[in-house]
Amino acid sequence: MLPALEDVLMVARSGSVAEAARRLHKTPSAISQQVRRVEERFGVALFERDGRGVRLSPAGEAALGAITRLFDQAEGVFELLSELAGEPSTTLRVAASDYLGKGLLVPVIRQMLEKRAPVRFAITTANSVDAARGVERGEVDLGLASASSAGGDLVKQPLFVQPFLWVGPRLKGTAPALRERLRHEPLLRLAPGSVGRRMLDAYLDRERIRPISTIDVSSVSLLVSYVSGGLGIGLAPALALTEVARSRLDVEVAEVDPLPVELMTRENFRRNPIVERFVERLAAEGRRAEQRTRALLGG
């Protein structure tokens, strides 16, 4: 049943039989047959139709954690066999938003590759909520996420605390505060469901601000790019602005609570020496990131 369970896991992760087939280099009919095999063997429906795709049934949701742990343990066996064969290697699957990837992951990955560490990286760009969800479902091993994300059952290691800032195009002469300009200039928003979007919506509701127009962007980096180009005001995490040319930007501390950035893993994730080295360097990079955000704020 193990090959069939692997197909079930891929359908659960992708939400689509066709996408699971593409990733596993199989036909959709072969994937569907394997899913039916498991369902008929145990007399339980694991999936329900959801538009053009599928979603886990209540029984499927209950089984997902156990199936994920099964393949986590299998991955540990493969790593052990590689070590016994004298060719140890670790694959680290990491999910992080674009700005956290640039600010935290890139320096650490560069260091480890320069040291020729026996590790392969598979990086997925995702907002904090999706990164935490990816760790929960076993799609990735580690996630970098803001503390208010999902993932209550995950192991979380704080990396640094960062404030959020209003950022907008710099105007000539004496300009009103950015929070006042929010009422008169286009508002840049991240995707619904992201931490930044939730914070922004809560602030607008609290202050009873209705923007004259909105521009939805897919990432923090794109938000900053719009502002640098002279259009829109947005709410951005401080780390995203530490290496941006300030000559074209106005920046103000936003009236929202700072959020810790955390490294998230599953409880049964195998932390071998390579993983421990990665986590240690990531923690050190987090401390440097906090120093850079403080310098941005002038303190």
UniProtKB/TrEMBL annotation:
Residues 1-57 form the HTH lysR-type domain. Gene3D superfamilies: 3.40.190.290, Winged helix-like DNA-binding domain superfamily/Winged helix DNA-binding domain. Pfam families: HTH_1 (PF00126), LysR_substrate (PF03466). The keyword Disulfide bond does not apply. Keywords: DNA-binding, Transcription, Transcription regulation. The keyword Transcription applies. GO terms for molecular function: DNA-binding transcription factor activity; transcription cis-regulatory region binding. Belongs to the LysR transcriptional regulatory family. PANTHER family: HTH-TYPE TRANSCRIPTIONAL REGULATOR, HTH-TYPE TRANSCRIPTIONAL REGULATOR GLTR. This is Transcriptional regulator, LysR family.
